[in-house]
Every structure is written in structure tokens, then in C-alpha cells.
Amino acid sequence: MRIIHFMLQCSIPHHLFNSITMNKALNRLTSISGRAMYNVTTLPSSSRMRYQHQSSAPRDQLLKTYRELKHFVDDKFEPMFMIDPERIFAVNQTNFDRINIYGFDFDYTLAEYSTEMQEFIYYKAVDILCTKLDYPKGLHHQPYIPNFCIRGLHYDVKLGMFMKIDERHIVQLDTVYKGFEHFGPEKAMQELKHVHIPKKTMDESCFRGNYHLQQLTDIFSLPEMMLLANVVDYFNSKDLGYDPTAIFKDVEQAVRLVHTENHIYHEIQSNTEKYLAKDSLRPLIDKLLRDGKQLFLLTNSKLPTVLVGMEHILGKDWQDAFNVVVTDADKPNFFDTENRVFSVISEESPEPAVPKRGVQDLRKGAVYCGGCCKQLMKLKKWKSGEVIYFGDQIYADLQNPRYSNGWYTGAIIHELKREIDIMNQATFASNVVWIQTLERLIERMQDYGDAESKQVVAEWMTERRKVQQELKSIFNPRFGSVFRSALQSSYFSSRLCRVADVYTSSVMNLLGHQSDKILFPPRGSHPHEQLVSAGYQHDGFDSALSAMLRRFKHMDGHKPL
Is the Cβ–Cβ distance between 371 and 326 less than 8 Å? Predict the structure, then answer.
């Protein structure tokens, strides 16, 4: 049974369990743990059929192995290693030794707002809906539920329904909600008609202005999703007719006005301590400057909000730390527009001003707005391969810098810490081990076509669905993990891993990171690849890998690969 422990040693270091690696380990586990059980799936199909008709011993051994493994996982299993929630995870090889310029977004990157910010946005948007857009006053009594949803969900604007979609564009039918009404797979299928979403529709869902399917990807989207659910639920409960598209547009407008009418700025100015920790950024900035890095701030936020926030988390001299400060940048257009000039802006002169000859130099201590990436790189004489930019919004902050400009990119995903904390729980680890053990056993039991074997398969499938639901609910009872669906990565996670070179739960995790370190991603395991690849996913396990492969060879005659 130590094979299970070895499997977890190999797979845990990447923050998500490597399901393929676990499959390989468990495939070997279920074939050898009973000693006498034959590895049926390695036989040619004709031999396998002859073997099945000759004896029921392998099937009986599978049932025995099921009972032994069930007992072990329930009573004796303990994960041997924990995932560090402050780790920086590499998706792509990232040569920090070549990176001399660190860029940062402001909201939810440098400024890590408390959860009260989402609640403020929600209630202010309710006020705007009721006072400016003539929505029923009863909406004030609809509850704000902090953990109702997760980011990365999709919203069918025409049907007024939330859903989670995986990386293969498949709707997870057990995650479809209209307001607070859970549809369930059958009803969801009746409404949606199709479980697969075309690529063109998915691509268009990533950006605002699409009124068919809209993905809600950043933390600022969470209060918007909560408000959409409450408005739809309110209208349904009162049996009031409504147009789902009109509701979506109104809610979208109300949340946007919370930002553009400076409600957030005034709230932060009045209650700074409530939302931001005093001097929280100072240790990180001091470290980066000691390491000789150049820093820049590039944000869509307006200068007054940035001034209040940065003075609180870094100090009144915060501008001295940054070589360039750009506010009101209009990302993602900033990264693709070629000839938009920078304007100069200041607290004393809030209206953008362009010098007669244009901005010829981006000076330290000044604040600029507008502009474009091409001008930034030209004026600072920076090279794309030496720049990394950190942000929390995968489309506005990370996609275009990576693909259009060749910068390294770092995603700040605050939900990551909570998910890793859950993954470090013994209950979660044992459920993951058990569900994949069940899947291997089911695969093998299907090799027998008699009625008794089919009944066992049906029972195991029912048990698998139960464990699957437990794994989902431990993250969020309605939508599960931000990063995973039942069998695949979530669409949010798949897009994240396409545009980010690294990701982590907080920008402050850079404090414990060597600035000249090269980070390597874990070796990916395809279904046809072998367990040996897992040995390179964590330092210090080469000898353990070698020993376990020797044990495999000794126990079942397989040669190490």
C-alpha cells in the first residue's frame, strides 16, 4: 500500500493533482496489490476474451482488491506531503534570472482588498438599480451570499442562467442555475438543447459587449453575479415577467457605474483601513529594489483611487519606487494600440495634458495616463524578454502582453490559497485516491460481460458519482473548484494556463522567491506516458522513484520504463 504514498509524493507538488499521473499509479496499483491478480488490460484483446471465459478468478480478485483498498483508504491513508499555498507555480519555463523589469496591475494585485469590498460593490449597485433604473425596492432585502458563486463561470444572457464550462467547452450540467434555482442535468439539458458550446461562442464570451454568453472572470465580477442571481430570483418569486437580456445589461451598467462614478474611490478614501492593510506592500517593494529590479505600475484605475491606495499600502513616497506609473491605461487596448500617446496627469492637474512635442520621456515621479505598450517599450528602451507583468484579470492583464508583446506574465489568483488549503486536507486527498482507484477497478470489471459483473459496475459507478459530488462540494456546493470540473480543467483554468507563465495566490509570495531563479513547469503526462515522468515533479524523490520501480519489477514482472 506504500505505492499510494509514493503516487502522492510525485503528484502533489503541482498545486492541482496530476490526474493522469494518479491514473498511471493506480492502474499499476490495482493490478499488483492483490499479488495474484492478472493485469488483464495488458493482454491482447483475443487473449483477454479467452481468459475471461475460462475463469472468474480475476473478477473475484477484483472484488477482494476493492474491499482491501476501500479499507485502506478509509482507515489508514494519510497524505505524506502538503502543497505550499504561497508557492509560485510555473506553467511555462520562466527565466527570472533574465527578468529585470517587474510590472504590476493595481486592483487585486498590489491592492489586495478585503472581502468587504465585494459586498460594498454589491449593495451600491443595488442602490443604483433601484434609484436610477427603477427596479423594485424589494431588491434591498435580497441577501448577499459571499460564497454563492466562483469566478470563471459563464452566464447565458438570453436564458438568464449560470453555468460552469470545462476546457473542452462542455457545460457541466450539474452546475446550471437560474437565480437560486438549481436545474439539475435533465432540466438543464432541456433548456440548453446542447451540452457543447461552439469555439466561436466561447471566444466571444471572454470580452464585454457580448450578449449571448458572457464569462465573468475577475473578482469584481463576483458581486455582479450575486446581483444577477438575486434580481432573477426576485422576479421569479414575485411571478414578474422580465427580459433576461435587459436584466443583464442593467446589472452590468449598475456595477460599471459603481466604478466610473468614483463610488469605490470615495469608499476607500473614507474607510481605507477596512479594505487595505497599512504598509503591506513595503517589504516586497524593498526586496525588489534591493535586487536591482525596475518597477512599473500599469492600471485601468484612475489616479485618485491609486493615490489613496498606494499611499496606504506603501507610504507617501510610493512613487519613488516606480520607474513608470500609468493610470487609466485602457487595458487590454493598451497592449494592441500602436500610436496612442501618453498624457501627463497629477493630483493638482487631474485633466490629462499632452505636451506640445508629446511625451519624449517617461520620468520617474511623474504619472501618465493613456499611451500604449509600443510607446512604453520605445521610450524606456526595454526589451520584451526582460519584462514580467503581474495581474489578476486573465484577458485584460495577461493575454495580450504574452501573445502580442512577448512579456512574461504572472497571474494573481487569490482563490488559489483557499483551494490549496482544502487540497491539503486528508479527506480531500483520500477522496481523490479513492475515486481514481474506483475508475481503474471499473475499467477492469467491464472486461467481464456477465450480469453479475455488470451489476458490480453499476454499483461502483453510483459510488463514484457520490465521491465526485463530495469532491465538488468541498470547494463550493454549487459550482465546485475554480480550477477543475469533474474530469477536466475548468475553462477558466485552461485559459489561465494559456496566458500565464506563472501563477500564485498573492503578489506578496514574491517575497520568498529568489529573483534569479529559473522555474520549470512539471512535466505533463499524456495518457500514453508512463509513471516515470512523475519522478521529476518534486525535488528529492529520484531515489524513491528508482526504488519503487524496482519494486514494481519484482512484484509483477514489469520492467522499469
Answer: yes
The set of cell numbers assigned to 237 is 418569486
C-alpha cell at 257: 457605474
Helix H or strand E segment including 408 = strand 408-412
- Contacting residues for 405 by C-beta, under 8 A, at least 6 apart: 335, 373, 377, 384
Catalytic residue of the set 74, 75, 105, 174: 105
pLDDT value at residue 54: 39
pLDDT at 196: 96
The rounded mean pLDDT for the chain is: 84
Q: Which amino acid is at 204?
A: E
Q: Assess whether 97 carries a catalytic annotation.
A: no
Provide the CA 135 distance to its chain's centre, in angstroms: 34
| 3-class state of residue 353 by DSSP | strand
- Side chain identity at 548, as an amino acid letter? M
- Across the strands, what pairs with 72? none
Report how many domains make up the chain: 3
Q: Quote the cell numbers at residue 48.
A: 483477454
> Is the same domain home to 218 and 293?
no
* Residue 107 annotated to the active site: yes
Q: CATH number, domain at 380?
A: 3.40.50.1000
Q: Are strands 518-519 and 94-95 parallel, antiparallel or unpaired?
A: antiparallel
Q: Which of 15, 74, 183 is nearest to 467 (CA)?
A: 74
Residue 502 has pLDDT above 60, yes or no: yes
Catalytic residue among 60, 107, 243, 421: 107
The C-alpha R_g of the chain, in whole angstroms, comes to 27
Alpha-carbon span 220 to 376, nearest angstrom: 27
Asked if residue 513 is part of any domain, the answer here is: no
